[in-house]
Amino acid sequence: MAELKYRPVPHDQKAFLAKARARKGFSKAYNALALEYQVAGQMLEPALFTRVRDETAEMPSETGAWSREGGRHT
């Protein structure tokens, strides 16, 4: 089986939407879901903040700061 390697793909939301809006019917369908997109965004935002905060707290610190778990970062 082929080995898969992680390759991040940049995503430009504004460019994506500009290209997609050129398709027939996209704008109407997208706008009809505006409320759902807004609710989903509000639900995901706290989860993303928490994940980033936790990952940052576990990263080694150049200042030698103590982690939230009580150990010293090296």
Query: Level of helix content?
Result: 40-55%
Straight-line N-to-C gap: 38 Å
Relative strand content: under 5%
Any idea what the radius of gyration is? 20 Å
Kindly state the mean pLDDT as a whole number? 78
Account of the protein in words:
This protein has three helices and no strands. It has 74 residues and is an all-alpha fold. The longest helix has 25 residues, at 34-58. The model has no long low-confidence stretch (mean pLDDT 78).
What is the structure about, briefly put?
The chain is an all-alpha fold and about 70 residues long.
Any chance you could write out the topology, listing elements then pairs?
Blueprint: H1 13-20, H2 26-32, H3 34-58
Structural features:
0% strand, 3 helices, mainly alpha, flat, 74 residues
